[in-house]
Amino acid sequence: MSRRAMMVLILAIIAIHGILLWLLFATDSAEQQLSETRKQLEEEIALHSETERGSNPFRTQTEPGSSVQLPESSGGASSAPSASPAQTPGTVAAQTSGSAPADRDPLAGLTTVKEKPQPSVPSTTYVRKPKKITPVKLDYSGAVQNDIAGLKGASLATAGILIDMDNNKVLWAKNPSKPVPVASLTKIMTIMLSYEIAMDDSSPYTLESLIPVTTEAINTPASKVDFRKGEMFTIRELLVAASVRSANDAAHLLAEHLGGGKADKFIEDMNRRAKEIGMTHTTYFNAHGLPGKSRALDNQSSPEDIARLCLVFRQYFYLMELAALRSAPFREKGSPNYMMLQNHNNLLPGAKVSTAGVNGIKTGFTNRAGFCLAASCERSGRHLLAVATGFPSAADRDNFVHVLLDWGYTKIGVSKPKAASSSSKSASSAKKTSTTKGR
Asked: Where is pLDDT greater, at 68 or 346?
């Protein structure tokens, strides 16, 4: 082979190798570009899906650390004088429905889900500043004592009182200053004090502060919301459980956490708060009202003291709205432990012993306390409060308070509301059903 032919062959081989190398690099580059394009498309699809989920108000969240958010709107079931969250009971201004505080409706927007931050426990125990309050002076002039002619149930009560809250006149009283076991009427103080701490500007807590479930809370006897290990709830959620369900475990968890890890500290503050209000016949041993080992260790209060407490409690509109709820969801709908809480107050409108105008506040029962009730009511702009303790059955208690309120309104010149017609009842029922579905 000539030298020239050899050079041509070598150049041809080099050219073929160059073409092969170019094809190899081009293929790699195409594959890399295809991979990057595929990755970019996947990221865009994921982002688009997340955006759709975030814009859907009915989505649910099942990841650990998520929870139902309970924002408020302008709804309302109570017409009691209210205080904005930052107001103290001594500086309450009357509010109309058009100027209600932002935290009115505890169930509005239940489908909105908010990511929960990790729980944080303050490094130092919060110490509540005492609230100086002039104790309410009750006017007993003209009050009917003990039994009431025509009202059989009065003889079944261990103690009780009926007050016109607009002027603090006592309309009826039976052993009003006698300390008696009050069972879950205890939670009126637990709920109110927890709310006051959460709304205190100097407090490290808010209604959205997370509280991790503890072993003590899990082991608290019923009535309860059945806490599970590892769960966390906001103070707001626990207030709903303690108010509507009368959940003992929720009440204890509030006391344990807000007491800096010890319920005893919170219970000490409950007793201090009672003294500030003028509750001179009251002693708390726990935050839920379950009986102690003996009667001497049961939470004790008197109808007069409970009435003084309710007069302060009713100034917090948000708490009155909770007290007026006949039912409320707890945990996320669809979760294994979801439950619909039911209120034990059978006098709320639409309940077993539906009583016009009743909008709270709390029931209670233990064997030693009997069946107890603190019922607030509003008719024609007039406000009455009935406290009754020691009844042998819930039916006896409910029927007596029902007729007692009617009797009280007649005494102050407010006529009994006319029974709704069947057509209006149907319309009202349909409206309630629609509202419930909307929530």
From this structure: 346
Q: What is the dihedral of CA 26, 28, 32, 38, to 10 degrees?
A: 90
Q: DSSP letter at 80?
A: S
pTM given for the model: 0.71
Confidence of residue 55 (pLDDT cuts 50, 70, 90): very low
Q: How far apart are CA 146 and CA 306, in angstroms?
A: 18
Residue 87 exposure: Cα atoms within 13 Å on the Cβ side: 21
- In-domain check, residue 19: no
User: Which residue(s) pair with 345 in the sheet?
Assistant: none
- Which residue pairs, CB below 8 angstroms and at least 24 apart, start in 195-203? 195/239, 195/316, 195/318, 195/319, 196/128, 196/131, 197/126, 197/128, 197/258, 198/235, 199/85, 199/86, 200/128, 200/129, 201/86, 202/129, 203/126, 203/128
Within a domain: 431: no
Q: Is residue 432 part of a domain?
A: no
What sections of 139-180 are H helices per DSSP? Answer: none
The tally of domains found in the chain comes to 1
CATH number, domain of 264, equals 3.40.710.10
Tell me the residue range of the domain where 106 lies. Answer: 56-86+101-112+138-420
Residue 271 maps to a domain: yes
